[in-house]
Amino acid sequence: MALEAETKAIVAKFDYTDDDVNKAVDEFLRQMAEGLGKDGTSLSQIPTYVTGVPNGTEKGLYMAVDLGGTNFRVCSIQLNGDSTFNLTYTKVAIPKKLMVAKTAEELFAFLAKQIELFLKTNHEEQFVAHIRRRMTVSSPDGFRDENVFRLGFTFSFPVQQIGINKGNLIRWTKGFDIPDAIGKDVCALLQIEIDKLHLPVKVAALVNDTVGTLMARSYTAPGKTGAVLGAIFGTGTNGAYVEKLANLKKPLLGEYDKSTGDMVINTEWGSFDNQLSVLPNTPWDMALDKTSVNPGIQMYEKRVSGMFLGEILRLVLLDLVKNPAVSFFRDDNSNSNDWKSTTTIAQNSGIYTPWGLDTAIMSVAASDNTPELSVLRQELESTLNIYSPAYDDAQAFKAIAGAVAHRAARLAAVAIAAIVLQTGKLTDPALADEPIDVGVDGSLVEHYPYFRDMIYETLRIIKGVGEEGAKRIRIGIAKDGSGVGAALIALVAANMEKNTTPADYLAELRSQAINHHLTTVPEDGETVATD
Ligand code: ADP
Ligand code: MG
């Protein structure tokens, strides 16, 4: 009984009321406007120099890599020009020690090596042709530069972008910490390592995963209109949206196409409300922040994304385990355990290790509706080394994990609603019944059961959105959106290279991209079409 009462009290601490949600939306809108006006604000609102979204007719073969936070993905994408694509893909986990390497070189050399492996496995022909040419031609500079793969580099950390394939790292997030890389151009860091391996690859575009997701959703979504928002709920969380140029008050450094009247903005919303004026703050949120590599920042992300939800839960559970007044994962004797055993938490259980509880188990808890919670109990054994957990332990675990995730989904709705409201599309009579497309990506939104339903449930109670508005918002998974999106931006970049004046790149890519592509490595050094 004590456990049940204590669980209830804990769950209540993760309540985020309708009123809280509505206050947070107002504050989000305020911080968005602030970030559009000047630098150094909570929401960075970084201009991406991407001034429009694709419509599904784009074509060509491109490469993309994605450094997300947990995994490194390498892929090649054939855009078919009819809203469809074919994607070849590999993924490796980023070794923990490289996340905190001494030098940037260590990390980027590893990334280049993965690109080499991918090319050898999946594009052997081009790869071999390229190597052969290198060996037979005396001056490597004599190569036609167009004859290499254009690669879109999805780099999901805050970057000051100064060109389509140039951007300096502002700070690491999500547990990375390689001070040597701060302030450096991450595209150059990758290109240097690619060149050391003599790979036929040019880093053509630097892409934030949110922008990639926005582009990918626009390419694949049914209908004529593009998406308004691309959002990530994976290791971290962030969003990019289409803003009116007129609302962008701070000065822009680079050249860009003004004809569309729009600019894609990378909000860096992980840092929303670092000052905690509207975000919830339990003792466990505070404890997590204190032990993180970046105390005081990314405060929204620390309450919403995959990297942190498991750790919040772990801290709560640890308090419960240590609480002498309740029996949690502890039995007086085998009779108090419904499986007539006694629970043991192994000394090496992840529950005792900072960051030792992967958010993935929260999905298992949420989806286990078996009468004895036997799936979750087995998972507690296999991933957390908690042996013979009793039914009431599993029940408490499920309730608390559910509360942490529910709060995260409600907070996710705050960001989505604020951006939809900011675009004005809900009140534009010209768009009356049109859907408002939002692309999402990341393991949390993809795998946590009913995460999107919880977002919708929250959208419905938000002022200015309501039942009707929520119905029009179409949240769709853009799976591997970062790959396809990066390819689309690499395509834009390739076209910009050919044209000194990238006037209206969309018209440009629609008319030119369709027939000709410059991504293979022919023997004769001429460009060839790949489709
Ligand atoms: P990245 O952020 O590197 O692009 P992902 O989108 O796959 O990668 O997100 C990884 C994060 O998602 C990790 O923090 C992990 O704990 C969490 N995660 C992985 N699988 C699940 C799952 N089934 N349910 C909830 N969260 C998950
Ligand atoms: Mg990702």
TrEMBL record:
It comes from the Eukaryota. Residues 229-492 form the Hexokinase C-terminal domain. GO terms for molecular function: ATP binding; D-glucose binding; fructokinase activity; glucokinase activity. Keywords: ATP-binding, Glycolysis, Kinase, Nucleotide-binding, Transferase. The keyword ATP-binding applies. Gene3D superfamilies: 3.30.420.40, 3.40.367.20. SUPFAM superfamilies: Actin-like ATPase domain. Belongs to the hexokinase family. This is Phosphotransferase. The lineage of its organism: Eukaryota, Fungi, Dikarya, Ascomycota, Pezizomycotina.
